[in-house]
Amino acid sequence: MNVLFTVLVTFFAGMGAGLGTGFAGMSAAAVISPMLITFLHMDPYMAVGIALSSDVLASAVSAYTYHKNKNLDLKNGLIMMASVLVFTVVGSWVASRVPSATMGGFSVFMTFLLGIKFIVRPVMTTKEAMQGVSAKKRAIQSIVCGVLIGFICGFIGAGGGMMMLLILTSVLGYELKTAVGTSVFIMAFTALTGAVSHFMIGGAPNWFVWALCVAFTLLWARIAAVFANKADPKTLNRATGIVLVVLGVVIMGFNLLT
To answer: Are 38 and 234 spatial neighbours (Cβ–Cβ below 8 Å)?
Structure first.
């Protein structure tokens, strides 16, 4: 019974995380962590480590799918990733120097609001419009936005995927598929960095739970990414919005339980 219950919990956790990653570049940690903590009574630090490691392959396979469909800005993605990684460390250091605050709900609330935004005001920017921005201006924008995203993620400890999607679509004017593809590309590396540091500090995880989470998240991320790359912009906006709203409500419910 315990094994079956574990499989069911990790299946639904992986499904939610994979759909969020494949559709919107959302971090698996936002979905998997609260489910492992709430239903399997796992240590929060280890739950985050398992969630981050699940994010690595899910984001990588999503990024590959988006890249294969020419929906990934690789050059500016690398520039943004460098500044995100550096300022995540800076943000973490600053956070360690100030009194702790209950800011974990920030990313959940932002997930919900972003979902509403995609349903009500879909992103209809085209690739042709994106190409109208000069390469130099885009590179500078990528550095500045990467600094902002990295610092906020390091300081608050969550919301990286949502922050990137919001800034790529609303500030940098990316077309939605390219925004998600670039976001999951960056997330694969940030999640790898976080997972390695978690396991180095906290020790080895429960390998059974780890394997199930990684496999289920990877499966659903692949399904979502394939669908997203074939969908027309209006359908993709609606699907992304619905997934984010549902996940936002579900995660808020888990947070209330804990």
So the answer is: no
